[in-house]
Amino acid sequence: MPKRHRPARGRLAALTLVLTALPAWATEVTLDAPDAADWLKDDLRSASLAVKAVEQEEVTDPQELLAAAQADYQRLVASLYSHAYYGPKVSIRVNGREAADMSVLDEPNSVDTIQISVDPGPRFRFGEAVVAPLPDGVSPPEDFAPGKLAQTPIMRTAVSDGVTAWRDRGYPKAEASSQSITADHRTEKVNARFGITPGPKLTFGDVHLSENSAKSRVRAERIVAIAGVPEGETFSPEAVQTAERRLQRAGAFRSAVVQEDEGVGPNQTQEITIDVEDARRRRIGAGIELDTDDGLTVTTYWIHRNLFGGAERLRIDGEVAGIGGLNGGGMDYTLSALLTRPAFLHADNTLYYGVNVEHEDEPSYTSDLIEAAVGVERYINEHLTGKLGFGVRYSQTDDAFGSREFYHIIGTAGITWNNRDNELNPTKGAYAEAELTPFVGVNGSKSGVRFEGDLRGYRALGEKFVLAGRLQLGSVLGPDIEDVPSDYLFYSGGGDTVRGQGYQSLGVEVNGDTVGGRSFFGVSTELRANVGKSIGVVGFVDAGYIAGSSTFENGDWHAGAGVGARYFTPIGPVRLDVAVPLGEKIDNVQLYVGIGQAF
């Protein structure tokens, strides 16, 4: 016997599921401000919690929507005050009733409509605008003055700037102590008066460590020395910030905070407390890069922090390059160690000891090198550093001039400027590095000076484009070309100079072979574009110049161009560049893969 009622139940069950899955009836929210400019309407919509709840968060709960509507009175009025509207009328109606008159204990079963009506009224201007006292030579902001629009952010800025001015003069306890703001609706004027209490002028007093800092493996006296708070000198907020940056860059701490103690210390002093938390003592990392000609390069490093309890750091780096290269050379090996100690004689000095061992098997030469150096790096300011050092160096090379040995005492003087917003993917700022290396020959080796410079600049063009440029410069002064170690000479071609040209393909011709030049000039330009959240594209042109003389005379040029793709990751963009030579037969396409932008 047929059971015709079962299909009907099935349809009913399906209909029930569909109805259950449908969202609740959407609330309609409107904001009407007919006398307001478009920019003010946009600001009011941004300030409204009700608009956000309905349009962005899709809230349907009546209690939440009523609470948002009631909170909007204060938020919308505050927004209007910030634009100098001090006589507004705001109405917010929920289901036709004024939200301010509704109780959350008697909320509606549903919220169908929220109607926001705003009449901003006239804009008010300052009648009086006073913030006092201020230090000698300090004036309020230009917009905090009679006749200017009486916007609340300007008032806050005037008070904040006044307190900051006193703190900069050595008064750390300066604070806003009084305020009087009166709006006269007849004259549409606002009289604003703010008082500041500077407090006493203080010098830096004792430096203490927090209980958390006592757990640090770094010795207490070393923490204080690295911070370098200038005890006995007049208080300065900048000195507090500088002390915090010194601790952060020392490399031994995961976090570092330098705080002013409350109250006034003995003998009119400002005491300081340092709170640090140690970073992990050891760290290991690795990297990889691919070049069509030069092959695969694999790098690795190992870091040991706080080696002797004074925030010393030992870093050991290893590199193998030229794996599977097609440039005619073999594999290169590098092993280096660098030991640093912060706060050497001064809080901004870092002492370093370095050892470097290399074997290079390049297309034009082979070289074995061992070098040891000691020096000091100085942090001049947040963006500028310099270094001075000296060392000893032995190298044995085999090139077009034959097999030779070099013994040198070397010096190093360098300076670096870096204000890029991101080292792996910069969009603005600049990077500049210049290094001078005098080398004094012993045991028959010649003496001279090597100079190398690198300048990079970045400029954002709108939100999606970045124009990047790079200039490289180098020269060796003094000895003839055959008396200069091969790795001190300059070559052009490859991923770090001219993409599209073979690795170290441009040098100086000697007896039918190629050796490096005594001078080098390189220029690179890139236009970078973001085409998605994680994808970017690049177009680039590179050019390089090599000369056998140290004065850049009688040299040769070559150039290359190409396009690239970038995949943005949390550790930096993954780079893929494809390039060809310019001005000559295209018989080879170069491919470059790595982490970070090309420069």
Can I get a quick summary?
The protein is of the alpha+beta class.
Q: Can you give the helix content as a percent range? A: 10-25%
- What is the number of helices? 7
Rounded average pLDDT: 92
Strand order of the largest sheet: 11-12-13-14-15-16-17-18-19-20-21-24-25-26-27-28
Structural class: alpha+beta
- Which band does the percent of strand residues land in? over 45%
- Give Rg in angstroms: 34 Å
State the distance separating the first and last CA atoms. Answer: 82 Å
Unreliable segments of 5+ consecutive residues: 1-24
Specify the overall morphology: globular
Number of strands: 28
Q: Could you describe the largest sheet, including whether it forms a barrel?
A: 16 strands, antiparallel, barrel
Task: Explain how this protein is built.
The structure is a single chain. The protein is α+β, with helices and mostly antiparallel strands and 599 residues long. 16% of the residues lie in helices and 46% in strands. The strands form five sheets. Strands 11-12-13-14-15-16-17-18-19-20-21-24-25-26-27-28 form a 16-stranded antiparallel barrel. It is globular, with a radius of gyration of 34 Å.
